[in-house]
Structures are given as C-alpha cells and as structure tokens.
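Onboarding guide, step 5: your first structure request.
Type a short instruction followed by the sequence, for example:

Predict the 3D structure of this protein.
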Amino acid sequence: MKGSKSHELAADVPASELWAIYGTLRFVELVHQLLPQVLHKVDVVRGDGGVGTVIQVTFPPGNPGPQSYKEEFVKIDDENRVKEAAAIEGDILNIGFLKYVTRFEIIEKGPGSSVIRSTVEYEFDEKHPQLEDAASTAPLAAAAERLVQYIKEQKTTQAIS
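The system replies with structure tokens like these:
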C-alpha cells in the first residue's frame, strides 16, 4: 500500500532564510540542537550535504517506534527549494516500510513570508496495515515550528547587538 501525509506551516520569514537551513546539513544539526527530544543524534556517513549524502539518524532512547535509520539525500533543488531524503537502511525499513521518503518544500509567499510543506511518502506491505499510523509528519511539523522561532530569535539577537 502506498500513501503520503503532509503538513504545512505558514511562516513570517523569507523563503531564502528557511532554505539556507533546509537545503543544507544545517537542518539536521539545528533540529538535533533545538529539539533533542525529537532527534537524539545525527551522523554524516558520507557526503557534504548535497545529493548522495547519507546520514545516520538516531531517535531518543525510549522513543516508541524506530530507533535509528540511514537516509540518503536524493534530491536537492535550490531553484524550487525542494529537498528529498529516502530511508535506505535501518529500523524504518526493518519494521515493514518498503519505501519512506521525506520531502521539504519551501514556498515563497511574499518578501517576508513563506510556507514550509513537509511530506512523507511511504509504501508498505499489506501485511502491515498498522504502519499507516506509524508514518507521521508530527516530528517534521515540530521542527518547522521551532526553526521558524529560531530564525526570528537570531534576527532579534542581531538587531540588539
């Protein structure tokens, strides 16, 4: 069975500032730093953040569901501000997903506003219908909200300095 789930967050920050984070390894570094309850550890297995980069993602101990997996950046489109990462090894695939792809789209709405669209596309064997509920955008939504807050905090700090 195939499916997808999406979350959209309207952000009152420029798309270019969001993409400077989402389009690079800075995204996983900041999510780990700002939301350790969502992302315990991230290691770059290979690459520099471009297409072909592989990262090892580890969730906090005691987290229900997958504990870790590897994902590969399979698409980074700077012009359209789209990034896709596919699970290639680890718990996400071991629990029964045949495919699990995360996509981030940063959509410019105006000079100081944008939308962060976070999507998971997945496929699983019909023998595992419970996986429908396991596919979630909740961590991506939490990351989007916290990253928007982080960008605003950085602007406030710079304005005060």
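Each response can be followed by summary notes, for example: Residues 5 and 120 are 5 Å apart (CA to CA).
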